[in-house]
Amino acid sequence: MGKPQVVVITGPTATGKTALALTLAQRYNAEIISADSRQVYRHLDIGTAKPTAAEQALVPHHVIDVVNPDEHFDVARFRALAHEAMAALTRHGKRVFVVGGTGLYIRALTRGLFVGPQADPALRKRLTAQEQEHGPGFLHDWLHRVDADTAQRLHPNDRTRLIRALEVWLLSGKPMSVWQREHSFCERPFSTLLVSLVLERAVLARRIQQRCQQMIHDGLVDEVHRVWDMGFGEQLPVFRTIGYAQIVDLLYGRSSLEEAVARMSTATRRLAKRQLTWLRAEPGVQWYTPAQEKDIDRAVQHFFEGAGAT
Q1: How many CB atoms lie within 10 A of CB 171?
Q2: Contact present, 127 and 167 (Cβ < 8 Å)
Q3: pLDDT tens digits, one per residue of 51-62
Q4: Same domain for 212 and 89
Q5: Where are the beta strands (DSSP E) in 38-190?
Q6: Which of 16-30, 140-154, 156-170 has the highest mean pLDDT?
């Protein structure tokens, strides 16, 4: 038997990945593994653009709602859970679609994960304290001085990944980007079709603006209140991510609702740009617009019939 087949549907945020995946997964008797670093958190649904209960009823999703907002989750755990789900789906004769925009998760799943130094809780605590002492941006500026390649692909507010990158450098004396180049991500455990959606910049900007406004309409502010009432405080890393960070500022009186939506939209556009930059560096990506659904369908069918695999 050949390698297990996996269809990956990715692309910048707000390009229509979920809708496309739902259509194709139903057509090909597949289930979906989410490759989104925030949809793993329970109770955080609107701000993460998590598939709705109705959408999840249409097609079962995996690696969604697996940890509480105050629990640690990283790419290694994602990879383990995704592999476990894929094995179970294969045993039951189901096809597998991996859907999401977290490039590192997709790369680790389809091309392997380098093994760096083990986590050092005391070092992480010191780095967190330094960020709090010197203010936002301190860790990102530090990382940029010692590992500009990694710093370029990380958001300045992504404290978890910034700390991990600095931890790797401080413990090994070697930047994470060098570890990754040496590993070369050359593992190929699956036969993979990698589809990325893309839109013109102006069109994507409008869709992002509309999505941010829709999140407010759908109750994003109430969602933050509700999660806080559960005891998950605003100091958690997830509340520094796009969407939630702007609502936190709103609730603390640091911005108006209009300003919060504008900042959310700007931050999301920047995220989309970083995602696109990441994907352009990945080998084997097949690019389509959302309007090319028939072409994507033909590519998927061709792939499942045994051609076009990587």
Answers
A1: 14
A2: yes
A3: 999 999 999 999
A4: yes
A5: 61-62, 95-99
A6: 16-30
